[in-house]
Design goal:
The protein has helices at 22-27, 42-57, 126-133, 189-192, 201-219, 240-249, 274-288, 303-319, 328-341, 346-357, 360-372, 400-409, 433-444, 448-458, 488-497, 520-523, 530-546, 568-571; strands at residues 6-10, 78-85, 94-101, 110-115, 139-143, 151-153, 158-160, 166-168, 186-188, 232-238, 258-262, 385-388, 419-422, 471-476, 503-508, 553-557. By secondary structure, it is an alpha/beta fold.
Amino acid sequence: MSAPVTVSEHRQGDDLLTAGLGLAGLREMTAPKFADPEHPTAAELRRRAIWSNWRGIADLSPQGGYGEVYGSVANIPGREFSTLLRLPGATQPHRVVLQLPDNFDAGKRCLIVAAASGSRGVYGAISVASAWALPRGCAVVHTDKAAGSDLFDIDAGEGVDASGMRVAAGNAAAFEPRLAEGATGVAFKHAHSEDNPEADWGRHVKQAAQFALHQLSEALPNQAPFTFENTRVIATGISNGGGAVLRAAELDGDWLDGVVAGEPNVYVEGNRPLYDFATEAAIFMPCALLDLPVDALPQPPMRAQVEPLWKQRCASLKAQGLIDGTTVAQQAASARAVLRASGWKDISLTAGAASTGFDLWRAVTAAYASAYGRYRAGEHPCGYSYTAMTAQLQPRPSTAVERNTWWSESAGIPPGNGILLKDPRMAPPDFTLAGEQCLRALWTGDNADAQRVRAGIAATQTKMPRRGLPVLVIHGDEDGLVPPVFSSAPYVAAARAAGRPVAYWTVGKAEHFDAFLAFPSYAARFVPLLPYMYAGLDRMWSTLEHKSTLDGDLHIEATPRGTGAVTATDLKLPQ
């Protein structure tokens, strides 16, 4: 361990699942307030972190059906056991939190291991795992997979401790980076730990499970010992968390009983890793989207705002000889043909409008390039860095009040919370293209930096799950960030070819971000994925209870709610 275990109790106005906020509090548009913004307490930071992670993952809009048609926000009292764990050989730790409900069922002895989605903090899977497990009397252990929201302000010399509190360098146990000479601005663990955490996500999941069993034995001595042999252990997560639990499935030993992975970012040898298709999308998708009917794309991003930028991208690509055509329409068709030739499907392009309009492709790949290459803060191969900025996009010092919010509100990868991505190549007329092409060259090129980044990507390749381990993969057909054709589909095919009968559920009209369904344009087109994760966990539980087989394909053609409220009939949940 890299920090002592902190035990906290959550009762009487507080709870494990919503930090006392309930559904109404989670739906509030503004974060729970700090009594003193300059000195928030650990309890206030936790409450805001839980609020932020619920809102970042689930569709909590009044017509979205959460807590009524599916899901739970029940008041679950209990205890939390928090610490920092470090894998052998790792430079930086990962955060782990065990949630032990007062209603823990000694007869079930069940533990759900939850890997945070994206690069989120340690509560990044609370709406996935805890919402299903805690009401059933299972314990839940969370890991941030050594990504997370532990940011470090280089100029102020401040990071955070094990409780998320702002502290000076030297006490920043959660993350204190090594710095390149001249580094300034902000560092964060996923990009700047020098550990390439994605290569070890499966080991983070297993280490979290080991910690949980040890703590359960200490917390419940009359029921001890808790072991892998006498406790049911199921791992679950979505997005990067889904990829993490599939990496855990490949580890040796009989320690894991089942895996439910949603929309997993998973790289199978011979197929395309996220870095490849995301750097390609960053360059070509802005132009290609102009070839789709205007009413086919969800908003935001607002078409009127992004269209001039997308037209400029077409012109830039044409000038470089990367696409053909003399008119914007012809150029857009050519860009779309480039993406389709490399495997993109139109349904993923449509949902990819969000990742394009919100600049997610660039944000993700800039951070991942640093992580894969194990670069220190201040030595990004394309010169990217992170800093607070003025309205005129000039670097400025962050404030203490801003730094107090980073751990609890950050999604793990800037931009966000006052921190922006600084691009030294940014210049008119196509502001981001030069930087995006530098990132792309780290995949397609052959210089020392490209070889370094590709070696890090190769280390993230997924192996096949342990023989006999029940695995269920669930993915939305219209995922525009991690398209099934590049991720879950080749994983399932490879697993089955290796004699592992992985079950595969695909959900029509589901994309990557449930939280976007709060926007009417998304609600009219898409359905949430979380209901199917809960149904998948139900199916996994039943499979283990009855020692039955879990395999085969299931396609669910759900119906978007449109302007009305979600109904069970719309969702067509498996029974």
